[in-house]
Amino acid sequence: MLSSFQGKLVRNAEDKKTVICIEGNIASGKTTCLEYFSKTSNIEVFTEPVSKWRNVCGHNPLALMYQDPERWGITLQTYVQLTMLDRHLSSTSASVRMMERSIFSAKYIFVENLFRSGKMPAVDYAVLSEWFNWIITNISIPVDLIVYLQTSPQTCHERLKQRCREEEKVIPLEYLESIHQLYEDWLIKKTTVPLPAPILVIPADHDLQKMLHQYEKNRDRILAADRL
């Protein structure tokens, strides 16, 4: 249930939960990271609701967006914004909520990329921005730590080809390069919008075994987010 706190809507008792968002490009290793930490007690993992994006009453807005972003970009991103907000607000009994991406990257990375690339009309961008600004102004969406899996676009492209997800077959390297640059500007150079939380950068171009070692190496720093 939502209640009011300091002028914003909050979920009861959720202000005491630690929220960690795992950010990174497509195929940067977010799922592997979440699976690794899902075995830790007191952590509940919230993956991106991709299954919802693939099936809205029988429609697949994710595939439609990749096929024709000018037409379907706002349709998908409106739904992404809604479902990511739901992820942020969904209740959990665990003391730590670990999320795959966030409502912030949905706006600052993916909506921004559509607009900057000329594939989202200015009016669509303005409407989505109005919605986003209303949400973050009126609803409490705390984040305690952002873990950025920093991966080269080339590595992501190779991983995409290996995992063969149907909607991703049309994603070119140039798209991954654009997403990468937006992430770098936001989280590394910090030249676009204010950061909602401290950043921990983990180089993620490595193979699975080395990445598991990286997660173990950074475990204490990540889980210390509940003490920040």
TrEMBL record:
ATP binds at G24, N25, I26, A27, S28, G29, K30, T31, T32, R159, L160, K161, Q162, R163. Its EC number is 2.7.1.21, 2.7.1.74. It is an enzyme of class 2 (transferase). GO terms for cellular component: mitochondrion. GO terms for biological process: carbohydrate derivative metabolic process; DNA biosynthetic process; nucleotide metabolic process. The active site is at E100 (proton acceptor). GO terms for molecular function: ATP binding; deoxycytidine kinase activity; thymidine kinase activity. It is found in: Mitochondrion. Pfam families: dNK. Residues 20-216 form the Deoxynucleoside kinase domain. It catalyses: 2'-deoxycytidine + ATP = dCMP + ADP + H(+); 2'-deoxyuridine + ATP = dUMP + ADP + H(+); thymidine + ATP = dTMP + ADP + H(+). Keywords: ATP-binding, DNA synthesis, Kinase, Mitochondrion, Nucleotide-binding, Transferase, Transit peptide. Belongs to the DCK/DGK family. This is Thymidine kinase 2, mitochondrial. It comes from Betta splendens (Siamese fighting fish).
